[in-house]
Design a protein that fits this description.
173 residues; alpha/beta; 4-stranded parallel sheet; globular
């Protein structure tokens, strides 16, 4: 099945930004989402079934990376443990101040924590990594900075020396 790295926005997120206290957040950081621009709408336009999304890896908790998960309600959402801890601890205004918009976070039963081990040398300078599929085709690495739990993905697109054949995917780093 298909895996998303970040899920973008959803129409549900726009509705959430109309409710209090998220309305303030939406006023400070307004969002426009033209018709056809959600990931689910783009997949449909390309003839793919959005229901084929089996999992979502979220680079961090901000709404432009997590809110689109609403369009894929059966897909588990994988997060760095630091972001998962933040989600369980922050509510209301405290969450909003950290860029977490109530109403855009998937149900807690869908959330999964990434588990890291020592990274192979080819992923240097990243010291820790999660071999997401267990076959070294997709590594998730901690990339704290934008948020404490920010992650990046490293996808294998070929084989070569010194990291050749690897693609880095990142959100807001």
């Amino acid at each position: 099945g298909l895996t998303l790295f970040d899920s973008g926005y959803s129409r549900a997120a726009l509705k959430a930004l109309k409710r209090w206290p998220a309305r303030l957040y939406g006023a400070v950081l307004p969002v426009t989402l033209p018709a056809g621009q959600t990931i689910a709408e783009q997949l449909t336009a390309r003839g793919q079934d959005p229901g084929e999304i089996e999992r979502i890896i979220c680079s961090h908790l901000h709404r432009g990376h997590l809110a689109g998960a609403a369009d894929f309600p059966s897909a588990p959402v994988w997060l760095d443990p630091a972001d998962l801890d933040e989600l369980t601890q922050l509510r209301g205004w405290r969450a909003l101040r950290r860029g977490i918009v109530p109403g855009t976070v998937p149900d807690r039963t869908r959330l999964r924590a990434l588990t890291y081990t020592d990274a192979p040398e080819e992923l240097h300078p990243f010291p820790r990594a999660a071999d997401f599929f267990g076959d070294q085709s997709l590594w998730i690495v901690p990339a704290p900075g934008h948020t404490a739990g920010s992650v990046a993905a490293i996808a294998r697109t070929g084989h070569g020396e010194h990291g050749a054949g690897l693609q880095l995917l990142a959100g807001d780093v």
